[in-house]
Amino acid sequence: MSNMRNLALESVGTLNALHGDGALGHFVAGQAASGNGPLFDVVDPSTGAVLGQCHDATEAELDAAVAAARDAFASWSATPPEARRKILHRMADLIVARADEIAAVECLDAGQCWRFMSKAAIRGAENFRFFADRAPGAADGLALPSADHVNITSRKAIGPVAVITPWNTPFMLSTWKIAPALAAGCTVVHKPAEWSPYSARLLAEIGKEAGLPDGVFNSVNGLGESTGRRLTEHPDIKAVAFVGESSTGSAIMRQGAATLKRVHFELGGKNPVIVFDDADLDLALDAAVFMIYSLNGQRCTSSSRLLVQRSIYDSFVEKVAERVRKLKVGDPFDPATEVGPLIHPRHFAKVASYMEIATGEGARIAAGGAPVQGTEGFFFQPTLFANAEQSMRIAREEIFGPVLTAIPFDDEADAIAKANDVEYGLAGYLWTNDVGRALRVSDALDVGMVWVNSENVRHLPTPFGGTKASGIGRDGGDWSFDFYMETKNVALARGTHKIQQLGI
Ligand code: NAD
Fold first, then answer.
1. Over the stretch 157-166, which tens digit does the pLDDT of each residue have?
2. Does 272-452 carry CATH code 2.60.120.10?
3. Mutation test residue for ligand 1: of 171, 245, 261, the one with most atoms within 8 Å of CB
4. 373, burial (CB in 10 Å: exposed 0-12, middle 13-18, buried 19+)
């Protein structure tokens, strides 16, 4: 797979060379815009080598990007939806045509494994097609007749929006937000995460080539506390679609309060996978291992808490441990690799710190538990904590790495109580062959999404999002359009009602 690494290095090299100073700037009003702000390094998580530098946007650069989105809004939102549909399909075609390059860049700067990224780029294209096809109906509303009026609702794009995304699967995640925003008629200023900024620029290039008018899609680079903050405070930005940590969501809500921003948050998770003793245990094992150790465990919907019925706890956990010890950790470009590096030394230090926390709390490290030796990259052994209790920090805090905490439960009520005993509420996974129990437990889980006898399989018409500290709002289907559009009601009198006469 060294040809894919070369493809990624070439792509990143081209992006670095776009601007005269060799550092990645911004994409504003359809053009590469050089940066003048402070520089920060982007690092290859597999080797620790610096891949390039990026500019934190200055206030003037950020203002220019928002102004471009504001100026383009009237014309883009008035563009016939059928024309928007065509452009977004062209974007999907171009994503497919460059899927290898996009996937390779994700492997290089996010450290994600090729075996998952090759499909993620294609899923990004599918997101564009899905919302492109719904663009023509996005403005449709309802007829709500009353005795004296006919009420007709319709929707209009809300205005220029900010999309702020994290580093874990940067390209695919950003398309969940950007595709429906553009389909709805909004213009966008995107700020990708500073630790994996490159694939966002590829999307900007693709939009330009597909025929997005200048200013409809803009991309600014920068740090959260400076560029991100200014973007969420900007009075011309009408809504903020954000994916990231719960604490950042709180900060964005504060930052957007003065300008009454509409917010859509997809935040952290500490998702349970609940395995009852009547389940198909072989399938449950496959799914539990897949959902925490794929994507390097850096996945919001990862099943990071394994709740197992006490009667089968020891045997099931031992089977998980055997699998974990055999996971193939290594070069993300190797198609055989199952777990790659963590994104950044800071994140590596955070994940590593939980080893001492776990043993200090009395849990047992049943597999892994240490950095991978002999590499300059940020590789950590896939880890399993056994004999854990729901009260422990390793069962309550989002570690966001290839780290699973296994907790026993006694019965249905105990499983539900433990599953819900966290501040997060993104997803829950449930394994049982008892239909009644599946219905009861699904109903009782305080989460936005439940998968019964399944790993996370995304179906775009369905709602995606969480409760509690895991988010506000839903993506997918028509839920996305509800966020990016304003609903208007027009009431037409039938001429049958009396109007009160005052001042006669
Ligand atoms: P993060 O919150 O640190 O950063 C996310 C983005 O927000 C980055 O672009 C960052 O620059 C920006 N940002 C940071 N501070 C900001 C501020 N004050 N104002 C505006 N923008 C700011 O998150 P991360 O570490 O990049 O990503 C990991 C987190 O994302 C995890 O908690 C994970 O669960 C979550 N996540 C959630 C979902 C979901 O769908 N629920 C999906 C993927 C990741």
1. 999 999 999 9
2. no
3. 245
4. exposed
